[in-house]
Amino acid sequence: MKRFILLTLCFCAGALSAFSQNKKVWFPDKDLIQAGVYYYPEHWNESQWERDFKQMHDLGFEFTHFAEFAWAQLEPQEGKYDFAWLDRAVALAAKYKLKVVMCTSTATPPVWLSRKYPEILIKEEDGTVLDHGARQHASFASPLYRELAFKMIEKLAQHYGNDSRIIGWQLDNEPAVQFDFNPKAELGFRDFLKKKYNNDIKALNSAWGTAFWSETYSSFDEITLPKMRQMFMNHHQILDYRRFAAEQTTSFLNDQCLLIKKYAKNQWVTTNYIPSYEDGHIGGSKDLDFLSYTRYMVYGGKDGIGRRGYRVGDPLRIAFANDFFRPIKGTYGVMELQPGQVNWGSINPQPLPGAVRLWLWSVFAGGSDFVCTYRYRQPLYGTEQYHYGIVGSDGVTVTPGGKEYQQFMQEIKNLRKKYSPREDKPKEYLARKTAILFNHENSWSIDRQKQNATWNTMAHVDKYYRQLKAFGAPVDIISEEKDFSAYPVLIAPAYQLIDEALVSRWTEYVKNGGNLVLTCRTGHKDRNGRLFEAPFRSKIDNLTGNKVDFYDLLLPEDPGKVAMDGKKYNWNTWGEMLIPGKDTDVWASYTDEFYEGKPAVTMHRLGKGTVTYVGVDSNDGTLEKDVLTKLYSTLNIPVMDLPYGVTMEYRNGLGIVLNYSDKPYEFQLPKGRKVLIGETKIPTAGVLVFK
Ligand code: GAL
């Protein structure tokens, strides 16, 4: 056994160092960041390609992105491939020094495929079978779909895998978890369950609690995909279904990746996820070199600051995605960033002048190795006609967003002349490094049993994240696979599903000097979503140094109050009334109702570390802000106090300050630092870079 572990460790270390070696070649520190743009040669007259690539190059782009939705052109008839047109596009791009990201086009099967093999089409819960004529209508759970897709991908990889003009691969497009009721998905679900429960239907019955309401199964063949919209559907079953559905997407991507890697020489493989934290499942395809995301900032959402905030976007939308994607593999890319107006929003306003450049710098600030924009030309036909590009409908006039890309790329080129290594970051910044522990399964589980309609898991997480960004802290959003000891503070918000192994890891982390923050709803259930047969939430009592007496949920129009250090805070979504142990300090207590005076927030010292337990979710995040401020000051961790809308990060020896707020912000330049881009008085949508 020991030998096995040793071998595995050696193997992993080998694989890791091979990856970091490659990373140095793919994304050398001296490049800082590389910029690219989507181009669909098949949409345009071939006589225009050269003109377009030349202008792309002149604007400063370094790579382009091909064949994302081109399966019909790559394989016009089953088994008949045509890569000649793509070869010509790759050659012309190379003439203008543009490298190419090649794509696997599995989001758009050709019509022959859907007509000849209709079994590959996704079936929705209400029975609707999706059809050809849009995209993303093929079922990842269909073995036949996979087989046909892999044939095409293998041909493409054989053709381009050893081509130095191709830098890397994007698999599929925005691969989501499919809630697909295709009969093949149902068969797949049964196989998944047989494997998970070792063919033992009793084990499944116990995990799903099927004694309740006569739900007991006598064989796996009786199991169907759970109807998510049916009231009171067994939520243990739904939890397993979501795991299964997530697995379909991750294994489809992983198999594509392994296939490409058979042929790919020095090319990276990634995919472009929508950062969908609550519903999605990001990071499951282990063989991908790194993950990329797509992000759209202005689409009519009202989450920006001030009257014109909808033209700038949510100040932490890119930051959170950066901090989520980067820790998965240590690096990440941004595959799509909007260049201007989109066409699919509720309202599709113009971004504020400067906003596109602000987003580009936000991507850079998070440590990304590349940024790519969707798309070069505004489409003249098809679903996305009103979508902006880097150039407008004439194919040549550079849009305002296009000019902001050009400016950004020029700024980066100037900075490259005097680059520092990517990890060159000041000590006081690293001292406040904090991790947020996140598992999609907690939000899947809570979502089916919210208990209070106003509860919102991501809004709860955001209350902590927002304050960390106000501290100017580098934040990693991590999964349980990561080593906790790398972080002085680890926050696990509303971590509902736990097991003994996790509790021991938390305990060891704290005993060795870590500072753990656990929040309400943590530790209630096991990984099947069952409550423990023990006093409520007692599995973590030794850690928290408190017990939960009971919990209460209130009407939003009549919130309760919690007091800490003479200040009061409103709450309504979730409040746990705590009983502190003898070594536990009470930081905040309820001030009304029949539980007036009962603790809501406690701090417990354990071994060399601490556990702060926040048993309540405040309405506006001010309690979370003040608890973290008190904690970091108790721990002597130096923090900043940036207003909401302003963030600061470091990379490559550069400090980057971004202003998403509706007022100018005067930044105090740290001693000995010099401004390289912008001014210390940073306007709305402005950027300051200093060294
Ligand atoms: C993305 C998608 C792209 C394009 C874009 C339009 O979500 O991945 O293919 O449709 O939206 O904004």
Write up this protein.
- The chain is built from 18 helices and 25 strands.
- Among the domains are: 1-8 and 65-266 and 279-289, TIM Barrel (Alpha-Beta Barrel), CATH 3.20.20; 432-634, Rossmann fold (3-Layer(aba) Sandwich).
- It is an alpha/beta fold.
- Helix 11 (355-365) packs parallel to helix 12 (400-416).
- Strands 9, 10, 11, 12, 13, 14, 15, 16, 17, 18 and 19 form an eleven-stranded mixed beta sheet that branches. An eight-stranded parallel beta barrel has the order 1-2-3-4-5-6-7-8, surrounded by four helices.
- The longest helix has 29 residues, at 235-263.
- The structure holds beta-D-galactopyranose (GAL).
- The site of beta-D-galactopyranose (GAL) has 10 residues, from loops.
